[in-house]
Amino acid sequence: MREMNKEPLISVIMGVYNDQRFLKEAIESILCQTYKNFEFIICNDCSADQSTKILEKYKKIDNRITIINNKKNMGLAASLNRCIDISKGDYIARMDSDDRALSDRFSIQVEYLNEHPETSVIGTNVYYIDNSSNRYSKTEFPHMKSISLKEAVKQTSLIHPSVMMRKEAILNVNKYTVTELTCRAEDYDLWCKMKEERMVLQIIGDYLLEYREDESGIKKRKYVYRIQEAKLKFYWMKRTGMTKYLFIYALKPLIIGMIPKKVYKKLHKRRVIDV
């Protein structure tokens, strides 16, 4: 194995907002990575539960952890941008505060990016887990699946908390866009911006993340966010000249938002529809 100081530094970025229930599991999964050369930057977006105490506890345990405390609630995109602003790594790894990274996630992703300098973003397959951390489904993306501009605009396969990016790539598109339209779709907008710049976005076949879909989160998803998502898709379709071909996909968030919650939950659990 190479000496640690010769291994690329990873900056792990994560936003936290009232996530006390699963926060410890998420943090532990990062601290238990086989790849050790990383900094863990966590932005606490004015949490009102026990998240703040949990974060302070882990900060004392591991000096790789840096905590940013927002003075007001800023949302995920702005919180992630604050993490990026102080990051020192060559690579940026995303993490969500209710998911669990498998122990070899970083080592596999770093190796891939080192061997493929043309690739800007690498995502992975994931296992879906419920609130009891039981796996109930999984993605089945082929190894080295490349994301085209058309797919990015339509609905990308990249799962945000599974990705690792070159820092220079996300800086080249001015980080995450912070607007009302990107409030719940900051990742979709980012992939579109990157593909517009002809960056290479790929998915490897390895399963490196357990992606939690909180049932309460599904219940709370407001229709206004569906409208914003549809508007954002219309924007990108118009910008890239794909409205004629992908119009129906812009309506998808609105249609899904009208499905009764009980029916939606059943379809979503079976992976018939996406969030």
From TrEMBL:
Positions of the Glycosyltransferase 2-like domain = 11-170
Any GO MF annotation of the entry: glycosyltransferase activity
InterPro entries, alphabetized: Glyco_trans_2-like (IPR001173), Glycosyltransf_2 (IPR050834), Nucleotide-diphossugar_trans (IPR029044)
Q: Name one Pfam family in it.
A: Glycos_transf_2
Lineage, top-rank taxon, reads Bacteria
Name the UniProt key words of this record, in alphabetical order. Answer: Glycosyltransferase, Transferase
State the family it belongs to.
Belongs to the glycosyltransferase 2 family.
| PANTHER family in the record | GLYCOSYLTRANSFERASE, GLYCOSYLTRANSFERASE EPSE-RELATED
User: Any idea what this protein is called?
Assistant: Glycosyl transferase family 2
Organism expressing this protein natively: Clostridium innocuum
